[in-house]
Amino acid sequence: MPTFSAYDGTRLAYHVSGDGPPLICLPGGPTDSAYLADLGGLTAHRRVIRLDLRGTGRSATPQDTVSYRCDRLVDDVQALREHLGLDRMDLLAHCAGANLAVLCASRRPDSVGRLVLITPSVRAVGLTITGDARLRTARLRREEPWFPEAFAALEAIVAGEATPGRWKAVAPFSHGRWDAAAEARQAAADERTNPEVVAAFGAEGAFAPAATRAALARFARPVLLLAGEVDPGAPPGTVAEFADLFPDAEFVVQPGAGHYPWCDDADRFTAAVAAFLGPATAPSS
Length: 285
Prior knowledge:
The protein is an alpha/beta fold. It has a single domain, classed as Alpha/Beta hydrolase fold, catalytic domain (Rossmann fold), CATH 3.40.50.1820. Helix content is 36%, strand content 16%. It is built from 11 helices and 8 strands. The protein has an 8-stranded mixed beta sheet with strand order 1-2-4-3-5-6-7-8, sandwiched between helices. Helix 2 crosses helix 8 (209-216). It is globular. The two termini are 22 Å apart.
């Protein structure tokens, strides 16, 4: 397992699989990158390089936990790019990782080639996901046997009455198919989550939405934003608003997909992302 040294000496781990030009992949959570696996077979098209964010997975825990903050992690991504010898990196990010990716693009646009945001969080750009949008998206699952209990829990959460039990009850909405495999993925995700890392990631000062939006309006590189049709965590309407912040963005909704679209229909997901990334020509290094 390869590692590199971050700006403060913290040893960070990354995982490499597949062939082709490098694609740096940032996990959501924030958590380790294991759940991304081969991204539905994207490794057939790209050399997928998954970063374990500091304090997660095989990466070391820093002495200063303030360094978990999203804006501080930009330097970790840049250190990985430099470690790999890349002048410019193609970057894919999922969920909360999208916040980190857009901070990289806004602060160091020269260092980012193509940018892929999968079911992205919108905190870094200050968009609002309304309760109505979440409920409207969730209602697309009303024929599912688990729907009544899960929807009641979601209604309570939207009303400001969240509890650990209700968060657990809404888990099926994150998966395009709520089956044994999805239950196992969800259980693994719950086990990997470190509340300290999650809290520090979005702590006060992590985001400056107005400045980030202004910078992204000048980001000239191609961007793909992919939403899951039935994902209340990143409803398609909000992801479309996110796409409008870029001058050159492609917006795709994957039918029947939840928050992990490469698990719901790997072929469709891989086809969309590989087509956007284009021919296998390596970025400058």
